[in-house]
Amino acid sequence: MKKKCAIIGTDARLSFLKETLDNELEVKIFPTTIWTEELKVAIMDFQPTIIFLPIPPLQIDSSFVLPESCLLLFVGKTNTEIEQEIQNSQVHAFYYLEDEQWIWENANLTAEGFIYNFYRSENESIYNKKFIITGYGRVGKRLAFALHHLGAEVIISVRSEHQLFEAKSYGYQIEQFEHVVHNQEAHTSYLINTIPNRWLSTSDTARFKKVYDLASNPGCLLESANSIPTNYIHSTSLPGLYFPKDAGYLIAKAVQTQLALLEGEK
Asked: Residue ranges of the S-adenosyl-L-homocysteine hydrolase NAD binding domain (predicted)?
């Protein structure tokens, strides 16, 4: 008899996660991002051994209690209620957004998704264009690599001196983060932000051709949503938006790896 797996969420990637796991588990998708009393009852009736939570944290509208049948919980972005239930129960929690293999492979899809998004919105080539990337984590590195190989001029801007000179060693131009806005000639470059902090003023966006903000909510703008400039695009979850099949299979790989590890521990 197959173990039961409950997948909660509305993301397009989840149907491909289900497709992959169907070979080894009895999988059911619950298409919601809100933990309600109705959802809790449905989960309790299903009695899953494995529960997969959506990437954004669940909105909790009823007490978050897992069924006793649940032994493994896959967690995206968490919240207080989820963490409290993990502590109170015997469930093993795996935070799939912190899995290194998934992070790097998802960064590749994010870089490719940005390129696709750029072509669609600009109707121009990347060759010979100037891109300033703020942040040099996984996404920033994969973006720099991809844009550089398409013939773009790439400038990396970060606070970390270590990352700054790492970027320089790969042949990219560098700019101190505190000077990145005012040292650029107005309207000659595109800004790609990957830093998940509010640091850019609305008025400073006017110095760039366009600002592509890839950071998670709330993005990099200091001002409220009521003052969003016309040249600012907040582009989150690009893998799920443009490549849900590939992105779903990446999540499935992380799930299968964790399941195999747990089976090996028995």
From this structure: 117-185
- Can you tell me the distance from the alpha carbon of 229 to that of 60, in angstroms, rounded to the nearest whole number? 33
Give the count of domains, the chain: 2
Compute how many other C-beta atoms are within 10 angstroms of the C-beta atom of residue 79. Answer: 15
Q: Are 174 and 157 in contact (CB under 8 A)?
A: yes
Secondary structure element (H or E) that encloses residue 46, with its range: helix 37-46
> Distance between CA atoms of 255 and 193, rounded to whole angstroms?
29
CATH number of the domain at 11, please: 3.40.50.720
> Per-block average pLDDT, block size 10, for the chain (266 residues)?
93 94 94 97 96 93 95 94 93 92 95 97 96 97 98 97 96 95 88 96 93 93 81 93 94 88 67
- Rounded distance between C-alpha atoms, residue 163 and residue 161, angstroms: 6
Q: Would the CA dihedral through 212, 214, 219, 225 be positive or negative?
A: positive
Determine how many CB atoms are found less than 10 A away from the CB of residue 166: 16
CA-to-CA distance for 232 and 15, rounded, in angstroms? Answer: 31
How many whole angstroms separate alpha carbon 91 and alpha carbon 153?
Answer: 49
